[in-house]
Write a structure and sequence with these properties.
Helices cover 22% and strands 40% of the residues. The protein is of the alpha/beta class and 122 residues long. Strand 3 and strand 4 form a beta hairpin.
């Protein structure tokens, strides 16, 4: 159902390096790259992630209760994505591990404070 998710950033070029590293782990790169907007994913593929400077010219802020979940292929990939996020300057929101019901996830925030996780079920 979701086509893509867009998150706000206050420093697009700095934040792009964070998402370049995570997208590379998924075997994806940038599919759109403009001065104020970058999107990662594949055309006609699964939902992608984009970053933008807010169009209203105001500072980007974090949505309270908003989180983007990135579906990994296995637990090892969850662990790698989490490690990549922290190595790129992201912050820990919960180390990878089982969360119940076969759900395994690691939680982190990007450089602007947007909350994400990498997860696998099963």
């Amino acid at each position: 159902m979701i086509g893509y998710v867009t998150l706000g950033t206050n420093d697009l070029q700095k934040a792009a390096k964070f998402y370049d590293a995570i997208a590379a782990e998924f075997g994806m790169g940038r599919m759109m790259d403009f001065d104020s907007y970058i999107a990662w994913g594949t055309m006609d593929g699964p939902a992608g992630v984009a970053l933008t400077k807010p169009h209203d010219g105001q500072l980007a802020t974090v949505g309270n209760g908003v989180m983007v979940a990135l579906q990994a292929k296995d637990k090892d990939q969850v662990d790698r994505i989490y490690a990549i996020a922290l190595a790129q300057g992201g912050t820990d929101e919960g180390a990878p591990g089982p969360r119940g019901g076969g759900f395994y996830a690691g939680y982190f925030r990007d450089l602007d404070g947007n909350k994400l996780n990498a997860f696998v079920i099963g």
